[in-house]
Amino acid sequence: MMKKESVAVIFGGRSVEHEVSVITGHQVMDALSAAGYSLLPIYIAKGGEWYAGRALYQIRQYSDPSFRVEGLRDVHRVSLSPDRSIRQLLLHPDAKTGFLKKPPLLWADVFFPAVHGSMGEDGTLQGVFELADVPYVGSNVLASALGMDKVRMKAVFKDAGIPVIDCLPFSRGEWKSGRDAIASRAETFCGYPMMVKPVSLGSSIGIRRCSTPAELAEAIDVAFELDERVLVERALLNFIDVNCSVLGPPEEASVCEQPCRSEGILTFEDKYNQGGKGIKGGGIKGGMASQARLIPAPISPEMTARIQDLSRKAFRALGASGVARIDFLLDTSDQSLYLNEINTLPGALSFYLWEASGVPFDELVSRLIGMALERHRTRSETRFSFEANLLRAGGARKKP
Question: What domains does the chain contain, in order, with CATH numbers?
C-alpha cells in the first residue's frame, strides 16, 4: 500500500472567525486521519504566532479560558519561509533546539489551510504559500481575495451575467467626514429596509437589517469597528436562503440546502450555535455542521438545476479551486434569484452537502489534496524568469 502524503493543517488565525477556524481545522484533521494521512497540526494564535505539534490536535482544550498554547508539551513556534529553496516550516528562533543546533525543518507534502476570514481566507496566506512554492489546498491568491471582498465579488459575478443585489460601498473615512451625506445616499440608493454589511468579513459577523435612520447609523458604526469598508443594499422582504457547494476544477455541484434561520437574516448564532456544540461539542458535528438545515432544499427541480448551474458559473468566473460554497437568496414573492456571496473556504468545507451528494468527508479531503498536488505540478512547468540582459546592456549605469 502506497504511503499517503504528510499534510500540514493550518487553523486559528488573526481574525474574528478564529474559533470557527479551530472547529473547521479539527474537522479536516478528523477526516484526513480517517483517510490515512499523516498530520502536522499548525495553530495560528490570535496574536498571529504559528505553532506546530501533535498536542494541538485536541479540540476541547481551546474552549478552556486558561488555555495557553505555550504550555503544551512538544509544541513549538514555527514559521513558513518565503524562500522557495527551503519550501518547509522552520522552527522559530525562540524555539529550544539544543546548544548550537541549527533550526530543524518540519516536513509536509501539502498545506491544507482551514483559516477563515481575514489573514487566511482573503489571499494573504495563499500568498505565503505561493512565495514558498509549496502545494496548498483551495483557491489561489486572486480568487481568495475576490471571494472575500463583497463589492468586487459582485462586480465579477455581474460581469459574468449572474444576478446579484446592487450595493453602495463607502469607507470609514467617508463615514467619519460625512455621516449625514452617506446616510442620505444610502436611503436614496435602496431605501428601507436595507442591509448593512462589512465588506470583507464572513460568518454573518457585523451584518444588520435596518428599518430606520437610527438603526442605520448604529449598524454602520458597529460594522466599521470590524472593517475598513462597509456596504448597504436593499433587503428582501420575503425570501429563503439556498446554498450549493462546488468542487473542482472540473466543476461539480452538490445538492442544495436551505439553512434555517431564527430571525429575518442568517446570523452567526444560526450558523454555529444552533446545535449548542461549538468548540465544546467538537468533532465532526460541531461548528457549521451543527446548523439546522433542510437537505435537499425544498425547491423545484428546475430551481435546483438553475442554482447548481449558476454555482458552477460563479466558481469559474472567480477562478476558484478546491471546494467553495455559494449562497443564494430566493425571493419567494416572484421567484427572483440572487447570488449573495461565495465562500472560497466554507465552514466545515460544506462536507455535509457532499455527504448528501454521495461523497464522504474522507474522500472529499483526499480529492482536495489531489487537486492541490496536480495544480502545483502544473504550475511548476511555468517559467517565471526572462533573460532581458538589461543590466549588461547598460540599464543600470550610474547617472552622470
Answer: 6-136 (3.40.50.20), 166-234 (3.30.1490.20), 238-277+284-374 (3.30.470.20)
